[in-house]
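Re: beginner question about structure tokens

> Can someone show what the tokenized structure looks like for a real chain? I only ever see the sequence side.

Sure, here's an example I had lying around. Input first:
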Amino acid sequence: MEYADPIIAILGIGTAVPGYRIEQAEAAQRLAEALKDRPDSARWAKRIFKQCGVETRYTCEPNLLESASDCRYLPRTSNKDVPTTEARMETYKRQSVPLGLQAARLALSDGDMDASDITHLITVSCTGQFLPGMDTALVRQLGLAPTVNRIALHFLGCAAGLKAVCLSRQIVGGQPSANVLIVCVELCTLHIQPSSEREHLYAASFFGDGASACIVGTAGPHHRSIFRLHEPHSVLLPDSSEEMVWEVGDYGFDLYLSSNIPKLIGRMIPAEVERFLNGEIKPDLWAIHPGGRGIVDTLQDKLGLTHEQTRSSRTVLREYGNVSSATILFVLNEMRRELQVLGSGPANGIALAFGPGLTAEMIKFAYVPSASIQEQLAGGAYV
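And the corresponding structure tokens:
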């Protein structure tokens, strides 16, 4: 039998969240109580918490579920008991590895892959750092080969998860026998600021904690429901470097998100997508990183998408919040689940994620259900 070119694909996906769930309405009420001496800020915060598209999210920090008077992360009259950056990084070091391990093991199982098959490990995070890093812990505890090629993508923001997928496709394209394990871990809630400033309240309204992982490699006949990866595209958008800024402060990382971000994305991304598609028919599947409700709303409007085409992104935002770099794999996992439930056939798609810079990462992909993998391996219908 004569085979077609190797199918480079996401072969398995795994996601994991910490054990503490934040109910959005309750979190808004606790914050309003903490801001009772600043009624304007309290009213603004309650409105943002209600409108941001999040209903639940998860945290590794149980103190965030305490009452307003006992929560050390909420606005207070004194910063005496507020966790320092050092304390937050200690929590990150303790919590990140178990969460990453859980997601990685699920991805290995989903992709029908043994740890010994992994040739490359890409770890992704922008919410914490320590050395020796998460990559070395994952190698030891997953039982990866000590010779595995380790690549760490740190402090690149929300776009880094998709950047890792694009990089993995390039690795496997040059080495078809490679199997790349990507592990993204983000503990965003550790950086909630004890502040009544609007940019800090906005960031506190929709970020959550979680981990996601995937295997990128060459598909075989035993794989199930894969995302075949095609060309990637990366662009640094002009005149937008100050719109999304994240710096290390005394009480965690200080995040500034401009209210202009959805407008900038709506103005510049449709033209970038059109250039990237280069005359191809607009795909059916859209895996949009839900950096916020405004981003999804704007792109749905500007790209002429249906609510069904943005449903996976909205579902993830509603149930998990924005989990930074880990989010795009949550979206793809939810999209795959929906396609499997519908019994969908092959379909083309595009994934998009955004980060500081402003940076946009994109990749063309195709959903290939189990029944179609053999046909494509044999050089049949191309998606």
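Each token stands for a local structural state, so reading them left to right follows the chain. The longest helix spans residues 85-110.
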